[in-house]
# Entry
Amino acid sequence: MQSINPADTAWLLVATALVLLMTPALAFFYGGLVRNKNSLNTMMMSFVALGVVGLTWAVAGYSLAFSEGGPLLGGLTYLGLQGVGTEAKGTIPHVLFMTYQATFAIITAALISGAVVERMRFGPYLAFIALWTLLVYAPVAHWVWGGGWLMSRGVLDFAGGTVVHINAGVSALVAALVLGSRKDYGRQAVLPHNVPFTLLGAGLLWFGWFGFNGGSALAANGLAGLAFSNTFLAPTAALVAWTLLDYFRTGRATAVGAATGIVVGLVAITPAAGFVSPGSALLVGAIATLPSYFAIALRSRTRIDDSLDVFAGHGVGGLTGALLTGVLAQKAWNSGGSDGLLYGNFSQLGLQALGCVSAALYTAVTTFVILKALALVTSLRALPRTEGIGMDVSQHGEEAYASGEGSILLPPETALVPEPVPALRPQVASS
# Structure
């Protein structure tokens, strides 16, 4: 029976705080990319996940993901955190392991908000992330990390390429399709209002990601050091690759592109961080920029209004990283893992593809059902006129940048009248 290790516990305390910081960092990253009339609402969509998802996780999500159960879902052993105390879970306190995993659930749900900002009403959003945590995140986490069917088959996901990024990216795409595009999407330029906020958010995300990946070793050991170093290396390669792509395609190296490149590099190395060599981490970061970069370029030519390109950055980036794990994984760097295709294990790439496809299909269908069920009882999006005024005023009665004396408050009848969910518009058109 293992006992609590003070060094491992100290590292996981730090790692948990680092991952928690990623949610406010995401708020700045997203908040800078929207128009100023929607910046507070966008940031609140990240901040509120700290409460809603954190509470949902403590009440039932953790038990569904990590208590003993079947191949598809955990049981109710830890419902309401019963039986979760200071006893050892590996070499750290059980309650600390639960808290560390809670920070993952929180940031994953918050990521989805980037696809629906500037139009989704705040109340339905709160209900959505609570239901999504229970019905989508917890089951997939159980499949991959909690003893479920993908874990038993040998699918590799060190820190969340499938559980976090494919999960969030696919859900974001479905949510964008269900809600429809913003009322002025394709008719006028929708430009970031504060690029320095976005750069600050990207930098803080990188900082927090050391806990995201390094902490996933669940110990202060060589594996944590490998994951930590790979979390530094992959984004450096992605940043350079993205900047060069920007420069050679447009003649300009944009700040938003640099911030996006950093995040894509971090996303791609997440599933591979503890399974690949430092040299391979550089390859993962550089290679992952290509599909994500061109997915963003392609999306901008369609009527799919994934506002902040969550699917291209996280869905495509996570898929690329998960598949590259199946190619570049090397047992010499992690005795508990498997070799990938490049090192003679031809089946690992197939297993990685199985994990990606199964998670994506389950996530897409369940997210669609959740949103359609909510749409039966309330309108998911704001009225066109309140959308035009801005979500900050209509949803929160506040402005990020007050004009004149005090905030402009929307009349209650304007802010609260529901609007039917618009029909999907699948036609592809040039924006």
User: Anything to note?
Assistant: Residues 6-377 form a domain with the Ammonium transporter fold fold (CATH 1.10.3430.10).
